[in-house]
Fold this protein.
Amino acid sequence: MSTPPHVTPWWKSASVYQIYPASFLDANGDGTGDLAGIIAKLDYLKDLGVDVIWLSPIYRSPLADMGYDISDYEDIDARYGTLEDWDRLLEGVHARGMKLMMDLVVNHTSDEHAWFAASKSSKNDPKRDWYIWRPGKIVDGEELPPNNWESLFSGSAWERDSATGEYYLHLFISKQPDLNWDNPVVRSAIWDVMRFWVRRGCDGFRMDAINCISKTDGLPDAPLVDHTQYYQPASMYFANGPQVHRYIKQMHAEVLSHHDLITVGETPFTHEESELAAYVLPQNRELNMVFHFELMDIDSPPESQLLRKPWTLGELKAIVSRWQRFMRDDGFWNAVYIENHDHARSVSRFGNDSAQWRTVSAKMLAVFEITQTGTLFVYQGQELGLKNFPRTWGIEEYNDVAAQNYWNLIKEKRQKAQGKKDVDMSDLLDSFAQKARDHARTPMQWNAGAHGGFTTGTPWMRVNDDYPEWNAEQQIGDDTSVHAFWKRALKVRKAHDVLIYGDFVMLLETDEQVFAYTRNYGSTSALVLLNFKEGKVEVDLGEVIGGVARYAFVLGNYEKEAIGLEEKVTLRGYEARVYVREALLN
Ligand code: NOJ
């Protein structure tokens, strides 16, 4: 049964591909990816089965946080090209029947944005109140920042500006001052930015840190949880703040409701489904969906996403099944992703990136994603099974400001505690090798040529060492490759509405090796079997699905030929299988 188009918005069945422009393809040899490079690869994306391209920021920016620090919302950074290049890109995307989604980064701007330059120029400037300025706090005769909030990228969330002697708030680095959304003039300037891009033809927005735009009144001190430092995590005072829904509803009324757009909000620091439901439920008229962080946080201790804690399959199963079932009848809609530019590579985190298991486990993770309800997101390189770069790379290869700042903070603490300059940091490098954002930001591996075919110049970031064997050209010609499998998997998803819209019933709930579930939609059922470990495992389906008759094999990561379904199934290491059954209609 397929869903009538008038009740199902197009973006629900879409497969979205995220591009990190700096690392996608460099067409002019300056070492940084660009719009011309993306244009050159539109056929590649179309052929893969992509419906929507999401571009990480390409606006003018000093790139202090790789473009998530914007100095002009209505221009393209010269490194990436021009507005005319963007128009050409859009034309090429639309000509191929795809859509283009922009990254909207409006919790903060760059400190080099003209708005901030005006704001900081004087306490009386009309734009002073466009940002969040406060005087310092005097404690025992010493001036401290206005409160103890810790920046998400280490240190204080406040920066003192000597011109006026006041501090401005920056949840991220000091080059990313937070906008003051409580000022209605700021909000209308943001609606204008959105209208600018919609008028130019963009098809939607991914909204950066959108649940952080409203801060708790009075900006109270955060509770003391880290006794090693003055600054404390403060997300309870800036995530999902008191006015956030009022502001997003206003955004909807002013801009979104007038167009047929795809919208997805990034909503960190929140694992509570009911809290996130408010952004997504259709009657609230806010956003189509959000990126929740519960799965992404599964292997992080509270102190930092750059550190690692062990996770169990049981935890992963519980998280996924809870979100898959959450408020379906009320219209809650998921954004399904396991990889993006802020996280290490999924095959290294959730699969097994050893030579023996890399291909098969990357394919298993593809099945894991394409068999979930929600809009599907694939991150550049995920379709090739790209993995983290090696532990042997030193700290100098980690470009990301989050990694650099955290490294420096920990180093200073150790130097102070140990009273010497030369301190052992190898444990932190172990963690970074598994968790840093940099792993997702290495250049795309297009072919076996110099720098993986990414650039003819010197790449802004080192290409992973494995590019001679792991690259797109190699995989496109190989029917057994991760790329070929993703292509097939995206087609299988499109061919079976049950995988997109069906309900979700977890089987074998306590099994610590196998994630198994059924999906049901109208008269169709799908059965999904995923072995998350190396060892073979026997699954007894007899008791859990009441008969295996009529289940037809539609996808598997070992062989293409159909494998019949028995009551007792032996799954090989990281094996994944999908079966679909049509009920007998009488
Ligand atoms: C989330 C973005 O995805 C990340 O890359 C960025 O550093 C922060 N927000 C700040 O914009």
The chain has a mean pLDDT of 96. DSSP finds 17 helices and 22 strands in the chain. Residues 401-418 form the longest helix (18 residues). The first strand starts at residue 15 and ends at 19.
